[in-house]
Amino acid sequence: MAKSRGALGGILLGGIVAGTIDIGAACLITGRSVVFILHTIAGGLLAKAAYSGGTRTALLGLALQELMGVIIAAIYVAASRRMPLLRRRWIAGGLAYGVVIFFVMNYVVVPLSAWKHVPHFTAAKFLANMAAMLLFGLIVAYFGRRSSR
User: Fold this and answer.
1) Is residue 149 pLDDT above 70, yes or no?
2) Which end of the chain is more exposed for a tag (fewer CB within 10 A), N or C?
3) Nearest CA among 129, 107, 102 for reference residue 117
4) CA dihedral 118, 55, 11, 27 (to 10 degrees)
5) How far is CA 42 from CA 36, 37, 60, 134, 139, in A?
6) Cα–Cα dist 74/71, whole Å
7) pLDDT, tens digit, for every residue of 96-143?
8) 117 and 111 Cβ atoms separated by less than 8 Å
């Protein structure tokens, strides 16, 4: 029971911390406000209508972001239970997972969302977005590693 409680704590903390920091990173990368970023996230379900949804739509975006963070963390924690190397070498595992997150989010999730497009990046935007996902992966791996103690 204590081990599963530790895993749940690692999943929730890792997902929420990484998801929240990712919102800040998106603000820095785009130069847009938190509300704009949250509306954009809600646009995954609502497309352009999300931008006229006000506070409720921003809260939907926040809930979706944190839910995605928790799901992403749960996948890493589950994988690290099957592959203890991910806990022992959590920095390398987190960086590798960040690369996976980047490609899955941009080339699977976004195209399948209401936005229905594949993002196109300049070299600078690609590096900035990849760095954000590397950080996301590191945070998830850190909390995932801690949850197995």
Assistant:
1) no
2) N
3) 107
4) 50
5) 10, 9, 6, 23, 23
6) 5
7) 999 999 999 999 999 999 999 999 999 999 999 999 999 999 999 999
8) yes
Q: Which residue has the tokens 């592959």?
A: 83
What pTM was computed for the model? 0.92
The pair of structure tokens assigned to 149 is 């103690």
Two structure tokens written together for 42: 């809600």
- Around 37, how many Cα atoms within 13 Å sit in the side-chain half-sphere? 19
Q: Average pLDDT for residues 41-46, to the nearest whole number?
A: 98
Helix H, strand E, coil C: the string for 50-71 is HHHCHHHHHHHHHHHHHHHHHH
The answer to whether 111 touches 41, Cβ cutoff 8 Å, is: no
